[in-house]
Design goal:
single chain; 397 residues; alpha/beta; 16% strand; globular; binds pyridoxal-5'-phosphate
């Protein structure tokens, strides 16, 4: 909401908790460079070293802090693969708040370990859609076998917050304040690149709603906007959930039922139900409004990447760098590898920076399936896409 101040201080209490794992390492990926035999220099910012294994904790701690300061006792949220829920569970406990998490049903069953992590930190976890809310009951009645989506889980979490005293709903991506919290990633990277004596030609982040992408890229985009620095910024999204590459820029709801305010965003339509691919964190129908506007004005590029390509890249990265990446992060890795391959073809030096948003140690079921040949690409047809895009009210002509 603040449109006046260029800088917003990180509160002392938030910094104290950040100190547990921040600053995160900026790593030169020598192993990957060698494996690709590329003249490009590849750097990655390693957000996987946070206590919950992803960048999500940067915003979870800030949000729990502000909720506590406001005198709240309870918060609610939704989670897809469980990354945001895990982060917020830890943050809520740190500030003495009670947390209820609506977890997308398919992940609740397929990814039980993240549910256990949330419960370990003391949160209550409910599979969504559930019978505990009007929104959930409505969806279950219409479609008893529905495996859930982030949009549905958001509707449920918002409804519970509205009906519980002293309670607010929190969101782990998409909204502008979340992007703001995540800029700590890029601000550190900016200093660390300077220490390494380099400046990136390309900055890459994987893209769900846009928080880790905005986090790593905003501080660099600032140079592009203010001083005209020549720098490319790339969002890497899954081909099965391609809001930035195949969506529409339109006012849309952030949730499935339509409880949230309308947000101008690149969207696939709020009733879009993404395929059950293994990147829970990227299966969301819309993009944050600032990122959407930047995309619309061509300040940033977007690429869509197929599931099998991301796992191939993930294995190469794991084998050359020793870190098993989150399936979400593998989209950024794939885009970085493509840039490094282009550098090789052109015989040109190039500095690439990408964000490793998290590790994949709790996503081994997905690796298992890839290694045993049970994963496939999911081709989203125009017909499918037009169904949900066609339901969008054309407010922006
Ligand atoms: C949630 C998540 C994402 C996607 O969310 P953004 O808001 O787009 O960053 C990416 N990577 C990981 C590891 C995640 O947990």
């Amino acid at each position: 909401m603040n449109q006046k101040d260029q800088w917003i201080e990180i509160p002392e209490e938030v910094r104290d908790l950040y100190k547990i794992w921040r600053p995160t390492p900026l790593v030169r990926a020598y192993g990957l460079e060698k494996a690709l035999d590329t003249p490009a220099h590849i750097y990655f910012k390693n957000e996987s070293v946070s206590p919950v294994g992803s960048h999500k904790l940067n915003s979870a701690i800030a949000q729990a802090y502000y909720c506590k300061k406001e005198g709240l006792t309870n918060i609610t949220t939704e989670t897809g693969a469980g990354q945001w829920g895990a982060a917020l569970s830890y943050a809520a406990k740190a500030f003495g708040l009670n947390l209820a998490v609506y977890m997308v049903k398919i992940s609740y069953h397929q990814k039980p370990y993240r549910r256990s992590i949330m419960e370990t930190f003391g949160a209550e976890v409910i599979a969504s859609p559930s019978m505990s809310t009007k929104a959930g009951r409505k969806i279950i009645t219409a479609n008893p076998n529905y495996q859930g989506s982030l949009g549905t889980a958001i509707s449920e979490a918002v409804e519970l917050a509205l009906e519980t005293p002293n309670c607010k709903y929190t969101l782990g991506s998409v909204l502008n304040h979340v992007m703001l919290h995540q800029t700590v990633i890029g601000l550190e990277a900016e200093k660390q690149m300077e220490m390494a004596g380099e400046y990136p030609d390309v900055v890459i982040g994987c893209f769900g709603g846009g928080s880790n992408f905005s986090g790593i890229t905003s501080p660099f985009l600032r140079h592009k906007l203010v001083t005209g620095k020549d720098i490319r910024v790339i969002a890497a999204e899954p081909a099965s959930c391609p809001k930035l590459t195949r969506g529409q820029f339109q006012y849309d709801f952030g949730d499935e039922i339509g409880y949230t305010p309308l947000i101008p965003m690149f969207t696939l339509g709020h009733s879009f139900a993404p395929a059950n691919i293994h990147v829970g964190g990227l299966r969301y129908h819309g993009a944050g409004s600032i990122v959407s506007q930047l995309r619309r004005d061509n300040f940033i590029e977007a690429v869509d990447i197929k599931q099998l390509d991301t796992f191939k890249a993930a294995l190469l990265f794991a084998q050359s760098e020793g870190i098993i990446p989150a399936p979400e992060s593998s989209h950024a890795i794939t885009a970085a590898i493509r840039e490094a391959e282009i550098a090789k073809e052109e015989g040109k030096a190039k500095t690439i920076l990408f964000n490793l948003s998290g590790h994949g140690l709790i996503d081994m079921t997905a690796y298992d399936q890839y290694i045993s040949g049970d994963l496939s690409n999911y081709d989203l047809t125009d017909e499918e896409l037009n169904k949900t895009l066609g339901q969008l009210e054309q407010i922006i002509k």
